[in-house]
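Final report, Chapter 2: Outcomes

The project's central promise was a pipeline that accepts a single protein chain and returns its three-dimensional structure in a standardized token representation, suitable for archiving and comparison. That pipeline is now operational. To close this chapter, we reproduce one record exactly as it appears in the project archive, with the input sequence first and the structure output second.
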Amino acid sequence: MTILAEGLAQEQLLLPSEVADVFRVHPETIRRWVRSGRLKAVPTPGGRLRRFRSTHIAELLAAEAVA
């Protein structure tokens, strides 16, 4: 397994409710943030549901802690 493949295998995809818990907001707020471009979502194969990369959420959380 390559280093890139290992990194992708370790990365978690989070549900909107899990991201909402991290930021202590309502899941609908997460949906609004996606529509406004504040959060990047990964669509599921069906296209209806969204998941969020844990690394992206950690980066946003760190940026908010600094601001």
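Archive annotation: The helical segments are 3-10, 16-23, 27-36, 54-66.
This record, like all others produced under the grant, will remain available to the consortium after the project formally closes.
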